[in-house]
């Protein structure tokens, strides 16, 4: 892949998620971007089963199992603050067999799906992020296809994003910080989606007051 930035765009004031997505895609179409099918990135959360945790007071680790329609034959497993494992699609079957060790927090399934757009050397995916039946946010993925070194093309990426994202253009993704001059990989995209999904999940968690 080229170099990719994944970011969240806030819902426009007085608009719904869907209306904001339409505003963004309209701007892309005005620029001359062409629709090229759809995409989906999903993420399921697993936590280590109680039986595998040693002493009391220890918290279970989280693992995220993710799929990206750009890589239909792969499955990505990411540990919290840890490595990203790229496996083949059979990994999902393995997770079912490991349910004594990892339990699926089904209520936490989150995904982003939407339309892909091609504009010159850029591929743009504007997605609606949903948890359960409701739309929770908007993701924008922008890829500069000809280049695989983040540092070489970040300014170009940012300039293009400003043309349709305006003041919501993101800063440089944290995964770039460790890359410097190394090759950008599909795992870097999945990590960015995981960070975005976790941010959206946290925004939904309203603190409960008065419970001791």
From TrEMBL:
Keyword field: Activator, Nucleus, Transcription, Transcription regulation
GO BP terms: regulation of transcription by RNA polymerase II
Pfam families documented for this protein: Med20
Residues in coiled coil: none
InterPro entries: Mediator_Med20
Main subcellular location of this protein, as a coarse class: nucleus
The UniProt record lists the keyword Transcription regulation: yes
GO molecular function: transcription coactivator activity
GO cellular component, one term: mediator complex
Transcription regulation as UniProt keyword: yes
UniProt subcellular location: Nucleus
Record family assignment: Belongs to the Mediator complex subunit 20 family.
The protein's assembly and partners: Component of the Mediator complex.
Role of this protein: Component of the Mediator complex, a coactivator involved in the regulated transcription of nearly all RNA polymerase II-dependent genes. Mediator functions as a bridge to convey information from gene-specific regulatory proteins to the basal RNA polymerase II transcription machinery. Mediator is recruited to promoters by direct interactions with regulatory proteins and serves as a scaffold for the assembly of a functional preinitiation complex with RNA polymerase II and the general transcription factors.
Protein name as it appears in the record: Mediator of RNA polymerase II transcription subunit 20
